[in-house]
Amino acid sequence: MTTTEGLDPAFVDDATVVVDDVSVWFGQKVALSELSCSFGPGVTGLLGPNGAGKTTLMRAMCGLIPPRRGHVTVLGHDPRGHRDVQSRVALVPEEDAVPEALTARQLVRYQATLNGVTDADAVERSLAEVSLTDVADRRLGGFSKGMRQRAKVAAALVTDPEVLVLDEPLNGADPVQRVALIELFQALGAAGRTVVVSSHVLHEVERLAARVIVVVHGRLAAAGGHRAIRDAMADRPRRVLLRSDDDRRLATGLLGLDQVVAVELAEAGVTISTGNAGELALALPRLSRQLDVRLREVRALDASLDSVFADLTSR
Amino acid sequence: MTSPAALRPTGSPLRRFPALVAYVPRACLPGRRLAVLALPCATILASGLLSRALDDTARDAFAQVAGLGIFGLAMPLGTLVIGDAVLGAEVRSGTLGFTWLTPVRFWELALARWLGGWLIALVTLVPCAAVAAVLAGASGLIGPVVVATAAGAAAHIALFVLIGAITRRAAIWSLAIVFVIERLLGAVLSGIAQLSPTWQGRAAFAGLGDLGVLARSGIPEGWDAVVRLGLITVVCLAFATVGLRRLQLTGARD
Questions:
Q1: What is the pLDDT of residues B160-210, one digit of tens each?
Q2: What is the residue range of B84's domain?
Q3: Which chain A residues touch B120 with a CB distance below 8 Å?
Q4: Where are the domains of chain A?
Q5: pTM above 0.80, yes or no
Q6: Smallest Cβ distance to B10: which of A75, A111, A115?
Q7: Does B35 touch chain A (CB under 8 A)?
Q8: Disruptive mutation site among A1, A3, A4, A64 for chain B (greatest number of B CBs within 10 Å)
Q9: Which residues touch A226 (CB under 8 Å, ≥6 apart)?
């Protein structure tokens, strides 16, 4: 995948999926607002807090939701108007819903039949790729969340899709499965497939994707390599709560630190704002020793992605 | 991007269609829903036994009880359980995406869901209606009650497939249509009764069985009613196809 040189990093040259000025709303709620970006071969991470519009964007990309304004094209076609496009696109939805009475093998075979897959081994291969062969004849209703997710991935892979859209695919997966799924998605991306993976966990997306699209409040907040996204997030001011055996003395000492922007003394402890959390982490133990104050708790108050995203969008 | 990419062949509808139909009994009717379906089946059987309590000929007694119990209550409710399961429940739960996101044409999807649902009605509600006629001692009405129940179920399930394709609250709308429009308004307005699977099923039974006690003026009877039910089925499936084309699958959480 090559980003369009010198132009907006939200776009790629060799796009297979183009989202053009798309708006979607449900009643009074705006889910996507004038969002434009494109996706090409390789793995692209779609990052955003819960409720940001990632799922709506993914559903619009697959044709499940028609844009109220703007256009989505997949491989040059409208995914809602051109049914045959569906054989080259696959969505792994985030929601837990699966046909519970079916076995994993039946679900994958159903997808293979409806998509006209003629390769007789495709079903078994897909099940093997997500390590579900041993339990393929168990009903999906008895599966854990992680196993259901893998069954959905197998059902998506059996069609050998050119565009694979995965909505929080690592939810519920144990650490070993996570690694295996990440390697699988990366291999698909390296093989020239367009893989779009959503997550609200930054480090997860970093491991998966070289390119990241950040969506907040239905709008495009940032796009580019994950290093650029992280750099954009790193230099934002952060709030940290400190508790010690002498908060007043600690607060006084903190005022002398260059890394501290503001200090607030309250009953719960000392709340500080810092523009450089990394340097503060080194300075705090030194200060604690100098003042002979024992630190009991150091807690980031706004470490959640929501606040990071909010900061990104406020720029 | 680029000119539209050529799309690979997506397989024959003849190969897809059996899989689409087979999906219905396998995936759409879990144990809980089958248990609920047992209630209208039991009601149909009870209708046969109840008719013995009437002080009338077995034929007329069964006709009266079947008119109320089978065509007025058990068949609409039984087909509602099936018709909602085959599409509306899948839209609500979010599992329809597994079928919608395939190259399957919308008419194939509507037709397959209806056919799968109708086959379930044919092996549950219809045999119960035949047994009810036997229990009532009116074996001569087995043919009419079977044909009328099968045709009525076909139209009802098509109606519920249509409702499932155009609204997320399919079960509530289906109940409202059965009880408010069909039962209440259809009882007094023959114009509505002419389009009602409930009343047309009853009229088919009355005409095929030559049952004067169920006669109602202003609506076709017998085979004419069966043809009317077929037309209702076709029209409902045509509109369901349009509904599926416009459907927004926002997911179970929305």
A1: 999 999 998 898 999 999 999 998 898 889 889 999 999 999 999 999 998
A2: 31-246
A3: none
A4: 17-231, 233-301
A5: yes
A6: A115
A7: no
A8: A64
A9: A45, A202, A205, A206, A209, A210, A211, A212
